[in-house]
Amino acid sequence: MAKILLGCVAGAMPSKAVKAVRAILDFIYLAQYSTHDEETLQYMEDALQSWRVNRSFFTDSLLPIQNHFNIPKFHSLIHYIQSIHYFGATDNYNSELFERLHIDFAKLGWRASNKRDEFPQMITWLSRHEKISAFNQYLNIPILESDSDQPLQSPTPLSKRIPYTIAKTPNYPNQSIHNIALSHSAPLFQKHLKEYLNAFLPRGVRTSSTRAELFPLPFSRVDVFHQFKFHPSSLQDDIADENDAVKAVPKSKALPNGRFDPVIVITGDSAESTGLAGTRIGRARVVFKLPTHLDVLGQVISAPTSWPREPLAYVEWYSRLSTSPDEATGMYSVKPLSSTQGNIVPLSNIRQSCMLIPRWTKDPAETKWSTHDVLGNAKSFLVNN
């Protein structure tokens, strides 16, 4: 829930209040890191200082929300950095550690017993698992030593670093391109598909984008998928990886407007695993695969070997990211384009999904927006990356 709190207050509260909320949220997230260095501790100190500067909004406004902040939870903030210096990261001394141990040492051991005279059995079970764990660590010593001797390699390209998974069987196989354009609200899908395939033609045969629109496609149907998932590696080594799903679901009775998730697409070599440099924001309209065989004059032939075999996505772009982030929230902003622009991109060029938060105004029409149509109605968005 904390991921969306800042976006909820942006535009609804004065800038000073938003800065205070941002500062306390930054501090909370930084305090949860499983490893720290002087740089991350300085980030915590900066967030705490920003909170001290801006929290006066809640006490000095015409309708003060709080008379003071001399309460234990807020007072404890000033001791976090010192405690991390003394005792290490906060996950070493919070209740979650003991909750986990209770599951490993008590619940699992009890389940392994015959529920009769269980304590000796639980102790035996735990002792055996500790020995197995110690032996596994012993076996891994040569692997760890060999890894430490290897020279550091340059990082792999980001597009190859984040794997994705997609269903083996398409949700809608052999769909006509005309129907896709209607059901996915993508009227320019065929135009951009022609431009994309034109780029794979030999130099002497390749034509301009304008002329490419005049030529018919050598096929009229493609396989369509409704979603795919990323499996990005965690920035913290001991935190389990999370799945990140992107959906491009056509219009239906249940979803009159369909569902077309915003995504962050890699467009330049400067792209990183977390920042927005070298990327652009768009909406995934269609996820599909090119056919492997073509029917040309009644004869079935193989598709050109130059065509990509991996799944593709048709993405409709938002405007370029703002040159600087919003002062209060620290978020960059994008706007819908007056005329639709899009591109066909490989799924490996899509780094992740992204949350767009409308820049709220005082227009009464905004109260009628829902999750199904807000992306099509709002005039400006904050990128909550």
> Could you list the spans in which at least 5 consecutive residues all have pLDDT below 50?
150-157
Strands, total number = 16
Mean pLDDT: 86
Radius of gyration: 27 Å
Which term fits the overall shape? globular
Largest sheet: 7 strands, antiparallel
Number of helices: 13
What is the percent of helical residues? Answer: 25-40%
Task: Give the total of domains.
Answer: 3
Order of helices and strands: HHHHHHHHHEEHHHEEEEEEEEEEEEEHE
Structural class: alpha+beta
Q: N-to-C terminal Cα separation, in Å? A: 14 Å
Give the DSSP E fraction (strand runs of 2 or more residues).
Answer: 15-25%
Description of the molecule:
This protein is of the alpha+beta class. Helix 1 runs antiparallel to helix 2 and helix 2 (15-31) runs antiparallel to helix 3 (38-54). Mean pLDDT is 86; it is low at 150-157. The chain has helices at residues 2-9, 15-31, 38-54, 57-60, 72-75, 77-87, 95-112, 118-149, 158-161, 177-183, 189-198, 209-212, 374-377; strands spanning 164-166, 172-176, 221-225, 227-230, 244-249, 259-260, 262-266, 279-289, 293-296, 299-302, 312-317, 332-334, 342-346, 350-353, 355-358, 381-384. The strands form four sheets. Strands 2, 3, 7, 8, 11, 13 and 14 form a seven-stranded antiparallel beta sheet that branches. A four-stranded antiparallel beta sheet has the order 1-4-5-6, with no helix packed on it. It is built from 13 helices and 16 strands. The chain starts with a helix and ends with a strand. The radius of gyration is 27 Å and the shape is globular. The longest helix has 32 residues, at 118-149. It folds into three domains: 2-92; 95-149, no CATH class; 158-384, no CATH class.
